[in-house]
Amino acid sequence: MTDDQRPPPSARGSHEPRTAEGRAADHAAIDRLAEDLVPALIAKLSASGLGEIEVVEETWTVRVRRPGDAIAGHGRRATDRPSRSQPGHAGHGHAPGGFEGHRSARDGKPAAVAHGSSNGAGPAGAFESGAGGGHRPTESGADPHRVVATSPAVGVFQPRADIKAGTRVRGGDRLGAVDMLGIPQEVVAPADGILGASLVEAGQAVEYGQELIVIELAARTADARTAERGDA
Amino acid sequence: MFKKVLIANRGEIALRILRACRTMGVEAVVAYSEADRESLPVQLADEAICIGPADARRSYLSAPAVISAAIVTGCDAIHPGYGFLSEDDGFAEVVRAHDLTFIGPPANVLERFASKEATRRLLGSLGLPTIPGSIGILRDDAHALAEGERVGYPLLIKPAAGGGGKGMRMVRTPRELEAALNVCRSEARAAFGDDSLYLERWLDETRHVEVQVAVDRYGRGIHLGERDCSVQRRHQKILEEAPTPSLSVEARNELCTRAVRAVVSAGYENVGTLEFLVDRDGGFYFIEINCRIQVEHPVTEMLTGIDMVAMQMRIAAGEPLGFSQSDIVSRGHAIEFRINAEDPERDFRPAAGVVERYLAPGGPGVRMDSHLYAGYEVPPFYDSLLGKLIVWGPTRQAAIERGHVALAELMVEGLVTNVPIHQALLSSEAFLEGRMTTNLLDRVGAAAFLAAAARA
To answer: How many domains in chain B?
Structure first.
């Protein structure tokens, strides 16, 4: 598994000004670590029963932690959503162990117009037709690299001011709140990871369960990487 | 009239309200729980919004969720349907405080009629006969025993805040009364958060007859006739018809006239239903008022041709009724069958599952109000009502014949329904002769009706 592992490029140095080239090299290094080192660490973590493993690889520090909060949170909320095999949901399988709020057909749709474009599509297709295309392959729960923080209530979304794409978060961290009639309902990260795209704007109306913020999972699984290689 | 209405309910009544909005040119938003994502009202809506999880306490019963949904979707009114928040005066008050209109009686009216015991006294003082009972809420056991002695046994213990038969007990002796009080108090507290009880004389072999009224903001009131809901199982109505076969035209007229006069005097507003028990001699006694649109409203719509949901919305919007009692013409006879997902052969236990095939009956005088479609999975979280089949005929006999045909045509595959009990009822002598009383089905047993129908 670590045969092709190479140290991070020597060009990388914390005191040097970051150039486009340097950033590209860093991303390449992160990709390699994610591809090769992280799966090994996950395997070790799973086998050990430890809560966290941290290793230093040249100038990089890699820490893998069990997302305990996310698992608990998922288990609780999953009971709220009965699984179904309706025609309308037939096209997109849900990932086993997928996280809450991964309804792919509804990615990024503002609540107030949730079905505006879907009327007339007929019972079976009504939800699919509202999907809006673009988001589904990446932000859906079928993607094992990502989870999505969802809205705990119907109301107006306000993200925390001090977080943005790229911020590292832990499962259970508060990402913002949905104001339901003056009662703030906390939006929490379902798992450890790095904040990705925001699917709704600050101040936008959201419905219960609506996907709000993508979280790139802290670790990628070996299986997923293999699959990606096959695609390439 | 409103520009946009939030429909804060589910199932067939959400669909019914959506249809009323559309015919009036009012936009509608269907509020739904996660369990109802694939429901027909959500799919047919121009706009729908998820307000919470399957648990009704966090969705259909959550005042903040419902009002927040109305605000973020730009609605100016909320229709609560029946059940859930429909008679909650606190909810109606908060709705108003957010500059939205609650489609139903105003909060202060709901509050005035919130206590059954107080309503009984109020309408009793305005000319409606009430069942002899205790004066006021029972203070303690000694007070209960003294009042019991005064009213006379057998007695019915009733919770002041209640409905749906919870916390009710029939007692025959002072000793039974004493023993039952604590049970009734704790049942009432658990069900309604209020353990106030009162006593009523128990009437044997009664019919349930209710009067539909509508009163506008300007104090103009009309009645739309009565409905007979005597076919019940454990205090739950399963079949309703109008006119009642148990009263003469004159008696019906007197009942309805007195009912509307009393509620107008009491300051009622919007549509409402006054429920009465009718004894063997035709004497009637007011029992309670329902401050909402009722499940069985289509029976009245079939007779009068009036869209009651639309009328309810107009009244809530402050419009005058626009017609008087003499404009209302009631024609023929209508019967409503509540189609429930429950098995009459297994003590009416609720059934859940996927509707594999569905066909609604048709033909003259046949109406099906249902949210079913083939492939729909009935969620296990809510009531078992799958829809209502309503038939109309120029006579009771003609309505019964259409009922037979329509029930045979109705196809709901994949779920066990109570259609067989309706078919058995339509063939039973007690129903055909108009002799059903509220406790007959429980006393004789559904199995006996089914067996008799099978022999016929």
So the answer is: 3
CB–CB contact A127 B47 (8 Å): no
% chain B with pLDDT above 90: 85
Cα(B105)–Cα(B103) distance, integer angstroms: 7
Whether residue A156 lies within 8 A of chain B, CB to CB, comes out as yes
Q: Which chain A residues have a beta carbon less than 8 Å from that of B72? A: 111-112, 154-156, 205-206
Judge whether B308 and B300 are in contact, CB under 8 Å: yes
- Which residues form the domain of A72? 68-217
How would DSSP label each residue in B88-134? Answer: -HHHHHHHHHTT-EESSS-HHHHHHTS-HHHHHHHHHHTT--B--B-
Query: Residue A58: phi, psi to the nearest 5?
Result: 55, -120
Distances (CA, A) of B12 to B24, B264, B359, B381, B389: 19, 30, 16, 15, 11
Pair (B446, B300) in one structural domain: yes
Structure confidence at residue B163 (pLDDT):
67
**In terms of CA atoms, which chain B residue is nearest residue A84?**
B377
Cβ of residue B46 closer than 8 Å to a chain A Cβ:
yes
Give the residue on B whose Cα is nearest the Cα of A112: B73
Question: Active site includes B367?
Answer: no
- Give me the residue from B42, B65, B73 closest to A112, CB to CB: B73
Catalytic residue among B112, B207, B292, B402: B292
The tens digit of pLDDT for each residue in B93-108 reads 999 999 999 999 999 9
Nearest to A116 among B38, B47, B375 (CB): B47
CATH at B57: 3.40.50.20
How far apart CA B153 and CA B144 sit, in angstroms, is: 12
ipTM: 0.87
For residues B14-28, average pLDDT = 98
Least confident of A116-120, A139-143, B39-43: A116-120
Lowest-confidence region among A92-101, B300-309, B408-417: A92-101
Taking 80 as the threshold, does the pLDDT of residue A116 lie above it? no
B48 part of contact set with chain A, CB < 8 Å: yes
A207 interfaces chain B, CB cutoff of 8 Å: yes
Region of B14 (left: φ > 0; alpha: ψ -120 to 50; beta: rest) is alpha
Size of interface A-B (CB pairs under 8 A): 91
Contacts of B21 (CB under 8 A, 6+ apart): B5, B7, B27, B28, B313
Q: Is residue A226 part of a domain?
A: no
Give the CA count within 13 Å in the CB-facing half-sphere of B289: 34
Instruction: Say if residue B27 is in the same domain as residue B140.
Output: no
CA distance, residue B69 to nearest chain A CA (Å) = 6
Task: Give the DSSP H/E element, type plus range, for residue B177.
Answer: helix B174-192
Q: Does B65 touch chain A (CB under 8 A)?
A: yes
**Nearest-CA neighbor of B195 among B147, B144, B261?**
B144
- Of the listed ranges A16-20, B34-38, B317-321, B344-348, the least confidently predicted one is A16-20
Using the Cβ of B215 and the Cβ atoms of chain A, whether some distance falls under 8 Å is answered with no
